[in-house]
């Protein structure tokens, strides 16, 4: 009888793990592939619906594939999303700010912008550490839920001497 309960417990544990993976909202999950491994990002349409919609649109167009991390500051963040690699480019479509009370913490994704609050385009950053001074001033649109150890390996610099690139980024619902 004890053997039966051990087997049943193992089966229930396996089912719980499988259900947790499938419970993730695949339409609002991104797979960001770096040379170091896969980063899983949970999108936050509850905080920034216009930004999430635009990011998914660009992802589905393959816009981000091959783009470098052009600004990577130790203890702060890694920035990407500029097709020119200079920090001055974008997709050509501005998005109005969607500021929230969500704090910038390790693994938070935020939209880069100029001094104008409504100037976000395609550039975004991933936080290496908390950045309370950004709270309420930049749009939070996602959170790394797996693979932060791969983000930590992105080469530092402004710009890095030999910058890392996004290998591929996909909406999880689109992955076969």
Automatic annotation (TrEMBL):
Gene Ontology molecular-function annotations: isomerase activity
Question: What UniProt keywords apply to this chain's record, in alphabetical order?
Answer: Isomerase, Rotamase, Signal
Q: Which Gene3D superfamilies does the record match to this protein?
A: Cyclophilin-like
Q: Which residues form the signal peptide?
A: 1-23
Catalysed transformations (reactions) = [protein]-peptidylproline (omega=180) = [protein]-peptidylproline (omega=0)
Residues of the PPIase cyclophilin-type domain: 37-176
Could you tell me which PROSITE patterns the record lists for this protein? CSA_PPIASE_2 (PS50072)
Question: Pfam families, per this entry?
Answer: Pro_isomerase
Instruction: Please give the PANTHER family that the UniProt record associates with this protein.
Output: PEPTIDYL-PROLYL CIS-TRANS ISOMERASE-RELATED (PTHR45625), PEPTIDYLPROLYL ISOMERASE DOMAIN AND WD REPEAT-CONTAINING PROTEIN 1 (PTHR45625:SF4)
Similarity section? Belongs to the cyclophilin-type PPIase family.
Q: What does this protein do?
A: PPIases accelerate the folding of proteins. It catalyzes the cis-trans isomerization of proline imidic peptide bonds in oligopeptides.
Please give the name of this protein. Peptidyl-prolyl cis-trans isomerase
Q: Identify the species of origin.
A: Inquilinus ginsengisoli
Upper taxonomic lineage: Bacteria, Pseudomonadati, Pseudomonadota, Alphaproteobacteria, Rhodospirillales
């Amino acid at each position: 009888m004890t053997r039966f309960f051990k087997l049943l417990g193992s089966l229930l544990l396996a089912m719980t793990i499988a259900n947790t993976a499938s419970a993730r909202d695949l339409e609002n999950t991104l797979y960001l592939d770096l040379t170091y491994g896969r980063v899983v990002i949970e999108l936050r349409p509850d905080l920034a619906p216009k930004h999430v919609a635009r990011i998914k649109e660009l992802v589905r167009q393959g816009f981000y594939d091959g783009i470098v991390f052009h600004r990577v500051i130790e203890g702060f963040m890694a920035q990407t999303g500029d097709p020119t690699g200079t920090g001055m480019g974008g997709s050509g479509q501005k998005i109005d700010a969607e500021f929230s009370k969500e704090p910038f913490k390790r693994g938070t994704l935020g939209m880069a912008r100029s001094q104008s609050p409504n100037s976000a385009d395609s550039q975004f950053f991933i936080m290496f550490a908390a950045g309370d001074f950004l709270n309420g001033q930049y749009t939070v649109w996602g959170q790394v839920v797996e693979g932060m150890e791969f983000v930590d390996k992105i080469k530092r610099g402004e710009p890095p001497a030999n910058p890392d690139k996004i290998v591929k980024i996909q909406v999880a619902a689109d992955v076969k």
